[in-house]
Design brief:
Distance between the termini: 94 Å
Structural class: alpha+beta
Strand order of the largest sheet: 1-2-3-5-4
Number of helices: 13
Number of strands: 5
Strand content: 5-15%
Number of domains: 2
Radius of gyration: 46 Å
Length: about 400
Amino acid sequence: MGRIAGWLVLLGLGTLCGSWYGSGVSGTLIAGLLASLAAGALCEWLLPAPGSMWGGALVSLLATFMPVWLFFLPALAFEAGVGLGTMVPATGSADMKDTQAKDSVLARPRLLLALLPAFFWLIPAITDLVLFRGLTQRYALLALLTSALTQGGGLACAHLAVAKGREWRIEDTERYRIRQLHGRINDLDEERAQATRMAHLSERTRIARDIHDNVGHLLTRAMMQVQAGRVVAQSKGDQSTERILDDVGKTLNEAMTTIRRSVHDLEDEGTDFASQMEDASSEASMGRLKVDLNNGIETAPAPVCRCLATIVREALTNTVRHSSARSAQVILRDLPAFWQMVVQDDGGIQQSQPDSRGMGLADMEARARALGGTANSGPNRQGWKVFVSLPKQPWSDHSAAEHGEDRKVMA
């Protein structure tokens, strides 16, 4: 905006000087003003295209025959300097891809032809300086010197604008690179957090298994030994020893219950439902089936997670082995009272009969029934569909009853 404002100021000063030179505002002066204004606007619009300065060059040539137009030469020279400073970097940068130095670019005839109009303002100034005498000659000399200065100013403005644009491009590039680096850092942080979480979950699962395998077996053996001691004390009629052993048995039974509860809690906390579903889907597809997993369950007890993961593996394995399906969809829903799962492939109605799929279907149904749920499978228009529904509250009751049975056995 500052460059355009300076150019308009030069046009205004030229109009004032021309009106003073011609003792008033004449039609020739107005025509020169409009021609200079149109030539400058055309140059601004076309830059940095070659030929953008030919309008100003034509107006400069006409000033040779109309001396009053000499006062518009500084404005025309200023715009020519802007075009000169804009076109040289633009054309040079494009041509320098195939050259080693900028001089070889400037020597090209096409570029010289495009830059030649920038110096046409010299023709009327020198012509009037040579042909006229007196006041007109002095005005021609003044126009020549002023135009040289304004062209240098326009050239400086253009180089400043180019440098500022280059600086902005560098800043934009740096900001883009910084955003990319921040994105990569965030991705790495997420991956590290996920890896840490998976390590914690794996460690919890390992601890739960170690407690179950080692401490649980030792407590079971101790409870059996106490029970045997009670039988011996009872056969001998030693009531005091029998009462002591009975108290020890109750304490061991409570310890076993506490350990079982803690192990189940650790196992549930160490179960990443989403990861197990993703692993089951990717492993069972064997790379031959495109699986779309839509998981709406955030967390579930470890037995439910194992049951659903096993059924997913079995269903997708059957799809790969017994159908021509190319893709399958696994949908998991977390309803208020149920966990539900649907496995649907696109094998069409030409599916294998249930009997030809082996014992997998019966195994899926048995696993669902063990948790109080149901599993149904069969063909439809799209392909083969497996539907599993596991109730939430009955599962809790089933788990509590299972603990009660364990306590009875240990007693």
